[in-house]
Amino acid sequence: MSYLAVEDLSISFGGIRAVDDVSFAVDEGEVFAIIGPNGAGKTTLFNLVSGIYFPDGGRVRFAGRDITSLPAHRIAPLGLARTFQNIELFEHATVLQNLLIGRHVHRRSTALSHLLFLPAVRREELEHRRRVEDVIDLLELAHYREQTIANLPYGVRKVVEVGRALCLEPKLLLLDEPTSGLNPEESEDMGFWIEDINRDLGVTVVMVAHDMGLVSRVAGRVLALNEGRVIAEGSPVEVQKDPAVVDAYLGAD
Amino acid sequence: MEGVTLSQLLQVLVNGLAVGCIYGLIALGFVLVYKATEMVNFAQGDLMMLGAFVAVTLIGDVGLPWVLGLFMSVLALAVFGYLLDAFVLRRVLGEPQFAVVMLTIGLGFIFRAVAGLVWGYDPRSFPTPYTGKSLRVGEVVVSYENLTILLGTLVLCVVLFLFFRYTRLGIGMQATSQNQLAAYYVGIPVKRVFSLVWAISAGVAAVAGILLAPVSLVQPGMGFIGIKAFAAAVIGGFGSIPGALLGGWIIGVSEQFAGVYLPAGFQEMAAYGILILALILRPEGLFAQIQRKKV
Predict the structure, then answer these.
(1) Bridging pattern class, strands A80-82 and A172-176
(2) Measured between CB atoms, which of A73, A89, A115 is closest to B184?
(3) Tens digits of per-residue pLDDT, B97-150?
(4) R_g of chain B computed on alpha carbons
(5) Most A CBs within 10 Å, among B173, B185, B190, B194, to test the A interface
(6) Per residue in B30-84, pLDDT tens?
């Protein structure tokens, strides 16, 4: 059975069918890309999968479990993390604090044991620190560890957000436009990290992307959407050549 | 008035700090709710009034032991705050700020009317085990009532500080106040956090009411000092917890000094005079937390 299975998913806003009967399946260990022109419904699809919108019809299954009607804070502990196109970080906190809060779902100790500074709390805290440091090393964020997000350049914030998602120790990572707003060099780094995350950490990745260079490099399979509907699915090369995709991007004759 | 002596100044200062603590605690309620939910709760003073009435009822009428009565009153208000958010305020979340302001002003009117119906409009006194006792330090007299206000505020602030600094829930609340969406996606139940913030804020209001009751009288209109507390919150920066307390002290102390050393009428104006001054000189507040919204 597929790791992430989206079945006949639909949602309307007013009279607009933003996502219209979309189905796809992602296997464990894959890098899966979703492409499409502006307004195709890519981010809406992400919001449906990650529990910020609830669909009018259809189902979402993750690791064999129906998560269609679970809210975001219940989905996160199952091992599903995401990032946002426009970056949602805790602006007035440091990089380290942002990453530490990414471990929120793994915190077990109670308020009382925290206030008493019990040894178990210390052990737990050290474990969280160690995991966060691993992420900092992986994404080369050491230099920015103590800096406040508000003072960081856009490209670094984008990486911090991926880092925070990794601190959740996800099994499935949803990346919404991981390279939007990045310069070519930063985009290239992001591509390498996505490969590392997938290959070394064994995280299944589903990403929304505009950057076909990135998609061709890291994605195994691609789903193309237009006006809320699936218009093509296959390898990056196949999808790029698909007449429906060409029409969607360039306009039909 | 004979010459101004140091002990007299100290006396006025202590009284001012005690009143300031009350303003500060109500201001704290404003700030907690605002930071987490971006709502301004104009019924904060009236929640304090309800807290005082519940305490008078439980301790004075029902006859519960003093400490148990206090604890139950704070708990009752916390539950009330939680439900108020879950059933009323959640409906206006995300609506324009003006809708929230009107709603909470309306809630304030309802609370006062209900309090009048249930408990009557006659001011009631709130006897405590320590009423009438006082501590003398040199020539300065600190009544036990004022002493409890000062100590009670201190203890409450330490508890809140530890809660926000060290507990999972407290840190989750801080995170929520910075970015609700991000908090939601790291697994923080944002709706429940909002309701819990309201619970804490109402509980803090109850503490303020219970501390104030012995030195004031308990009556439905006592919540109007919430307006001065609002000024205190603004002076403090409206997003800062230490700022709220400091704002409360500044207003409390200057009010007392105005009452003693300036002609009649100045005491009532002091809070607003300082507010206007603060808005002119340092509009972002003493502890600036709110950056201008970037577009």
Answers:
(1) parallel
(2) A73
(3) 888 889 999 999 999 999 999 999 999 888 788 777 888 888 888 888 899 999
(4) 19
(5) B185
(6) 999 988 888 889 999 999 999 999 999 998 888 888 889 999 999 999 999 999 9
Q: Which residues of chain A have pLDDT under 50?
A: none
- Which residue of A lies nearest to B161 if distances are taken between CA atoms? A115
In chain A, residues with a C-beta closer than 8 Å to the C-beta of B36 are none
Q: How many CB atoms lie within 10 A of CB A14?
A: 5
Looking at the DSSP assignment, which residues form a beta bridge with residue B261?
Answer: none
To the nearest 10°, the Cα dihedral for A191, A193, A195, A196? 160
Q: Are the CB atoms for A226 and A40 separated by under 8 Å? A: yes
pTM attached to this predicted model? 0.82
Are A68 and A59 contacting, i.e. CB atoms less than 8 angstroms apart? Answer: yes
Cβ–Cβ under 8 Å, residues B194 and B32: no
The encoded tokens of residue A162 equal 């991926």
Residue with tokens 């990135």: A214
Tens-place pLDDT, residues B149-188? 999 999 999 999 888 888 888 888 988 888 888 888 888 8
Structure tokens at A189: 């780094």
CA-CA distance, B121 to A193, in Å (whole number)? 68
Half-sphere exposure of A213 (CA within 13 A, CB side): 10
| Residues near A195 by beta carbon (within 8 Å), at least 6 away in sequence | A31, A218
Query: Using CB atoms, which residue from B166, B178, B187 is nearest to A77?
Result: B187
Please give the mean pLDDT across all residues of chain B: 88
Instruction: Determine whether B144 is exposed, middle or buried from the number of CB atoms within 10 Å of its CB (0-12, 13-18, 19+).
Output: middle
Query: What region does A234 belong to: left with phi over 0, alpha with psi -120 to 50, or beta?
Result: left
Domains of chain A (ranges; CATH) run 1-79+171-194+206-253 (3.40.50.300), 88-169 (no CATH)
- The two structure tokens encoding residue A226: 């237009």
In this predicted model, what pLDDT tens digit does every residue of B184-208 receive, in sequence order? Answer: 888 888 899 999 999 999 999 999 9
Mind listing the domains of chain B with CATH numbers? Answer: 6-281 (1.10.3470)
